[in-house]
């Protein structure tokens, strides 16, 4: 039977290019190392190295084994190290609205992981209130919100303000227009929008009320993917935040910035006030200045 020890010995022999050097690195005698190599070759039914006066070098079979097993052993060692230090790795629980988890959070994952000191667990909620409740009751360490209201007992800190974009089929007449106004969209287009309660819907509703316009909402859906599916089939147009719209790779739809009377949404992070010094630097690059 092939042992893990034999694989480790073989990898070190290839790295050193010499049985003598490998035995020094491994603190085993050269005869013992040679014996382990011969046993490994016997189990595999083939030789793995070519021996010469300068040392050894892997043959094609040895190169294949080295390439495959190097990454396997590295992953094995990482797993063992994580298990040994499991109690030292802290869970960092993050909640967020779906499009923020998908399109905004990934850019911060490396900082959140803190070089392996944090295990990041992400969960999606459909409303700011569920996320705020999650922070307050300890379900989440922090939460990503959209157009959040100030809270009494937790800190809500703005990270980024972004405009909404109009998304429509490439066959739509908007495709040939450079300037698109919000008024034209809500007065003349069929709208496929996120389902209430939704902060993006609230922004659209507020702007429409201010302009005394009633939009023609033909469909309401929960997921961005659902909106795009119906928009691409010609059922209407939708309004999406810029980080979502710019990331789209759906050939059947196009996006335009709303250049006249644009609408914005604010992305914020919520956390308990005592955690701000520890958690906020993870998002420091985009923290808004007062």
Short description:
By secondary structure, this protein is α/β, with parallel strands linked by helices. Helices cover 41% and strands 27% of the residues.
Key terms:
single chain; Arc Repressor Mutant, subunit A; D-Maltodextrin-Binding Protein, domain 2; 3 domains; two-stranded antiparallel sheet; 12 strands
N-to-C order of helices and strands = HHHEEHEHHEHEEEHEHEHEHEEH
Count of distinct strands = 12
What CATH architecture of the largest domain do you see?
Answer: 3-Layer(aba) Sandwich
Radius of gyration: 29 Å
What is the assembly state of the chains in this entry?
single chain
| Tally of contiguous helical segments | 12
CATH superfamily of the largest domain: Periplasmic binding protein-like II
Question: Could you please describe the fold and organization of this structure?
Answer:
With 290 residues, the protein is α/β, with parallel strands linked by helices. It has three domains: 4-85, Arc Repressor Mutant, subunit A (Orthogonal Bundle), CATH 1.10.10; 90-160 and 266-286, D-Maltodextrin-Binding Protein, domain 2; 161-265, Periplasmic binding protein-like II (D-Maltodextrin-Binding Protein, domain 2). Helix content is 41%, strand content 27%. A hairpin with a 2-residue loop joins β1 (49-52) and β2.
Q: Secondary-structure map with pairings?
A:
Elements: H1 4-16, H2 19-26, H3 30-44, E1 49-52, E2 55-58, H4 60-84, E3 90-97, H5 98-103, H6 109-113, E4 118-125, H7 128-136, E5 142-146, E6 154-169, E7 180-181, H8 182-188, E8 190-194, H9 199-211, E9 216-221, H10 224-232, E10 238-241, H11 242-245, E11 253-260, E12 264-272, H12 276-279
Parallel strand pairs: 3-4, 3-5, 7-11, 8-9
Antiparallel strand pairs: 1-2, 5-12, 6-10, 6-11, 6-12
Helix pairs in contact: 1-2, 1-3, 1-4
